[in-house]
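Can't paste images in this forum, so I'm doing it all in text. The chain is below; anyone willing to post the predicted structure tokens underneath?
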Amino acid sequence: MSAFFSGRGEGELRARPSQGNRRVLELAAPLDARPNEQRAAGALDPILVAVVVALIGFGVVMVYSASAVHATVTHKDPQFFLKKQVVYALAGLAVIFGISRIDYHRLYKLTYPVLAGVGILLTLCVVGFGKSGGGATRWLAVGPVHVQPAELAKLALVAWLAYSLAKKAERVKTFTVGFLPHLLVAGLFMLLCMKQPDFGSAVVLLLLTFTMLFVAGAKLGYILGASILGAAFAAAAIRFTPYRYVRYLAWMNMDQYKHDLAYQPFQSVMSFGSGGTSGLGLGKGLQTLYLPEAHTDFVAAIVGEELGFLGILLLSGAYLLLVIRGVRAALRAPDDYGAYLGFGISTMFAVQALVNLAVALALLPTKGLTLPFLSYGGSSLLVNAAAAAVLLNISRQGPPEPERGPEPEPEPDAGLEASA
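Text version of the structure:
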């Protein structure tokens, strides 16, 4: 067990050897323990709920503001994307309400079916069943419903890593049991993402895997060695793939390529610059006329233009608060599975928000990653809603807050009584 979540593993087993084989089995496979219905019925974290709902609502507003012009030109209806996003938002709230009431201990039985199902969906995208768009094949179309398996892969991988790391306990420190299998599964999912191609999602999956292995107590040498190999592979994937290398050169020389390859990041930076401190006002941004697909991956640029630096600062603060409350729920979880699951979901939110904002600010090359809860799209919003719901259920099962009684009245000063 790692130092982050100490006190729940084999140490407790050694301290209580007299409780018999039943207790040994429970600690060796803690996920088989029955869910605690009383604990699962605890109160939700109100701050976490407020942040998630606020982000979803703000996302609906910004999608409309960023897409009205594009929707008018392409669909003759300025509210075309707004109507769809409202449906996605309502579905997301329903997902949060439903899943947050399900004890997360019951979810571990779905770990392998979900992991296998997402792997099949990723494979279908690669072998020719995917729907192409923007030079990539990242969606599966079932009638009017479009599913992006890469979004599902992030949550599925986090859930599997949490299950596997909780089950293996101290064996996480070994290479063949605790490190290599996790890296191979993550590598398979990354390879399927790269074949779409979806380089950004592959990077997110790798960061999630390394972060969770580090928290679980895997040897730092293994993680550093794999990180070096991963960085070398990423550099080779960029250098020896023509379109990636050209995009990288355009990002490095935006002024030279601002009319073609670097047009989108250049216009995004212009959005932030024109917003100034307080912005032009909601719905008054002009970059929606120039920034392609502003309501998807670059919605943060419209936030920066219309609400300015203060708006971006508040948005970043909301994501920071989301991650802080998520980590708090993980630290207070009653078992290793909940701790790893909560920490993995919090990391997923943090990495995606950080990378998306960095891309919008042209600090990183264009990656095609959505901004959690804000970017237009059903797959991203519903997956993030499900992840937030699991996080909320974990927060319900932490120890209850201590009740604060009335403060005692101060005793009169003894010296004053004596003089009186």
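Residues 31-116+150-398 form one domain. The CA atoms of residues 327 and 334 lie 14 Å apart.
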